[in-house]
Amino acid sequence: MATMKFFQCDRPSCLKLRKGRFYSEQPICPQCKTEGKDPKYGHTIRRLTIIHYDPPSEYPGIGMTHRACSRKEPIQASDGVNGQPNPWHAGTGSIAAVTCHECMKTPEFKKAAAALDDNDGLPPNYSAVIERLAMSTTPLR
Ligand SMILES: [Zn+2]
Ligand SMILES: [Zn+2]
Q: Which residues 6+ apart lie within 8 Å of 66 measured at CB?
């Protein structure tokens, strides 16, 4: 199975929907259909690093260093060129910075989102947080 990559189309009209971001195997914008190999506009299709949620360990401030969406995979799997860490995958313990759509569906992520304190005295509502975060990405399927 080919790997889904994460892209952003910088065409101004495309930026209005989901910040121009999309998951795809190929660098082809689903909105304007511009391809990455297009000689004139191809450079506007940029590949972005997928930021996974790195669940916390029991030590404060130290993450597990695996992807919440795939526990067996370290944040940077060694599947880059010549077995180097893959530069297109990163991790964070800050849920607001997560861009991986699969990580957002995990119990670890939802638990962290629920723990966010909005300081308004209302019960935490993680579904609203997830909805807001999910706006920046396109569903994987
Ligand atoms: Zn576009
Ligand atoms: Zn992930």
A: 54, 55, 72, 73, 74, 75
Q: Return phi, psi of residue 30, to 5°.
A: -70, -15
CA distance 132 to 129: 5
Judge whether residue 116 has pLDDT over 80. no
Tell me: pLDDT of 118 over 70: no
Question: What are the sequence ranges of the domains in the chain?
Answer: 1-48, 49-141
Residues with CB under 5 A from ligand 2 (ion): 52, 67, 69, 100, 102-103
Q: Please name the residue ranges forming H helices in the chain.
A: 12-15, 107-114, 126-134
The answer to whether 51 and 45 have CB atoms below 8 angstroms apart is no
Distance 29 CA to ligand 1 centre (A): 5
